[in-house]
Design a protein that fits this description.
Helices cover 46% and strands 21% of the residues. A 5-stranded mixed sheet has the order 5-6-1-7-8. Strands 9-12-10-11 form a 4-stranded antiparallel sheet. The protein has a 3-stranded mixed sheet with strand order 3-2-4.
Length: 405
Amino acid sequence: MAQFIIHVDMDAFFASVEIRDNPELRGKPLIIGALPSERGVVATCSYEARKYGVHSAMNIKEAFRRCPGGTYMHPNIDKYKAVSLQLNEIWNTYATVSQRISLDEAYLDVGEQAGDWEGVRAIGHLIKQRTLEEVGLTCSVGVAYSKTAAKMASEEDKPDGYYEILTPEDFVNLIIDRDVSVLYTVGEQTAKKLHTAGIRTVRDIQQRQEEVVRMLGKHGQWLTQVAFGIDDRKVVPYRPQDAKSIGREVTFQKDVSNHLLLKDVLLLLAFCVEHRAQRYDLRGKGVTLKLTYSDMRSISRSRPIIMTNSAVSIYHEAEQMLDSIGERPVRLVGVGIQRLSDHEEGQMTIREFFEETAEQDAERRRLLDALQVRYGLDFAGHLTDIYQMDTLHKTVEYMRKHFRP
């Protein structure tokens, strides 16, 4: 059965929101992310900045080297979330099922409302019109028979674009001689493998299907299908419960070697993980620790646990993993839980429940009191502020600067 799918993708979302709210930024290269004096990367940037070769995920130092005259800003995630809710209210008006991919993009199954391709076109243009009139932002819309094609279509005519790919033949004709990286799920490493084998274009994948499958296994099977325009995936609503892991990490502005300071930061990160997990009633069966060193080499450690979403439990597991690793300059630290479930395992007696809760509460107070003594901050009274990324980073930097072994 044919699908009628729209992919909506906002144009340089974070930057566009800031330009909307401050018209003086219009026409200037705007870079959202870390500041040039900080460590970090570009979250997004305006199209004027992209002319200088700046792009998302680029190291902020490299962005500044390429565009020293740009305007650099920290992201305001709370503002962008509020705008995202406005956008989804508009988009969901036309969809039987919507699948939000991020704050600024979504797949919409509009078959029931549209009926035919003329109806889909009308909806696509209405979405563009209402997004501009009601939110003050432009978006790019892709109309297609599949999710892969719709995503491709929305990227064909950015910014403020509209593009249609109505059949597998249209899809193949569009991409047949493009680089393999044009295909969904082909990242830098996969493209490198294929290029090394002399498979450079989509046409090459079509002509060397067995070789691609031998090289990449199930991923290769997927790519050989997509290369012919085959993608039967449905639009599925996103549920936080479907996540495989929850984590939080921070990058230090100067390397940190002392494990005591790292543990203090891990505690704050564990509280952030707890907050998100408990918000969706999720628990993890494993804790992960991530470290990135000054030479950009990263390591990760994990260990199984009895199912939990408690910051105290997460912290103590991460602490023990950190103790097994030698001290050296650390650029980034992160912690998370994995193997998530929204079901508790085993049954506790009421007495066991209250005993465990009391122990956790006492340990929670002890850990936060120790932080307050060390840094002079009221962590217990203002813990909810730490869940905001900007406040978390500022707090971690304050701790780094005022830490005394």
